[in-house]
Amino acid sequence: MSGILEGKRILVTGVLMESSIAFHTAKLAQEQGAEIILTAFPRPSLTARIAKKLPRPVETLELDVSSEEQLAGIADQVRAAGLPTLDGIVHSIGFAPQDALGGNFLNTPWESVATAMQVSAFSLKSLTTALLPLMQDGGSVVGLTFDAQYAWPQYDWMGPAKAALESTNRYLARYLGERNIRCNLISAGPIGSMAAKSIPGFPDLAATWDNRSPLKWDLTDPEPTGRGVVALLSDWFPKTTGEIIHVDGGLHAIGA
């Protein structure tokens, strides 16, 4: 029996550790039949080392999404690596300087806010448009967010950055629909990844899930989120775009 991504070619960003959502997405995508390629920054050698734990070998390309020069060359690099076309893009990129997190919201300088916005939100647009030449037959773009409806403790300027990401996704869906490209996000519950560990007070934030999530949530298990990403990459959501699918144990639906 073939997998739901059989024959598809997928570019995955954000593989930093074996515990990352991006790693599990790449692993599941391969298991479901996809051919994948990874991009990484700032340490592609680290990503290449982690990628050896995937079921099959993959190429790793360096890509700083804040570099116009690197974005301009990424499509050619993907072709040179053996993928003449793409069917999917996974955006698992987010970053904010430390002075934009941890309760410093009122004092964060614009320069740090701008960095968070460019890397965490604008990059969804810049990455997607850089790879459009490889998506002539349509495809699926899937990003990862952390529910921007709420002001989370310690999350500070990553919150507005995720709100911008969610809005960017809707506008991409609007403008890319005519190319048969679907653009959706997974709103994930907290995972004990490298990105999460960089957030001051993360354990307190994550504890919310112990008290309010209808389905038991496991901080150490990124696979449910990866499954959601793979499902959106597949042809099983052919007319879904501009959407945010919650893979958070149901917490988003629960009040006090």
Structure write-up:
By secondary structure, this protein is an alpha/beta fold. The protein has one domain: Rossmann fold (3-Layer(aba) Sandwich), CATH 3.40.50. The chain is 39% helix and 14% strand. It has helices at residues 21-31, 44-51, 68-80, 110-131, 158-176, 194-197, 202-212, 223-233, and strands at residues 9-13, 35-40, 60-62, 88-91, 139-145, 181-188, 244-247. Strands 3-2-1-4-5-6-7 form a seven-stranded parallel sheet, sandwiched between helices. Strand 4, helix 4 (110-131) and strand 5 (139-145) form a beta-alpha-beta unit. The longest helix has 22 residues, at 110-131. The radius of gyration is 17 Å and the shape is globular. The N and C termini lie far apart (44 Å).
- CATH class annotation: Alpha Beta
| Overall body shape | globular
How many domains make up the 3D coordinates?
Answer: 1
Low-pLDDT segments, ≥5 res: none
Question: Helical stretch count?
Answer: 8
- Rg over CA atoms: 17 Å
Determine the CATH topology: Rossmann fold
Distance between the termini: 44 Å
Which structural class should the secondary elements be placed in?
alpha/beta
The chain-level mean pLDDT equals 94
Report on the biggest sheet: 7 strands, parallel
Per CATH, which architecture? 3-Layer(aba) Sandwich
The count of DSSP E runs of length 2 or more, i.e. the number of strands, is 7
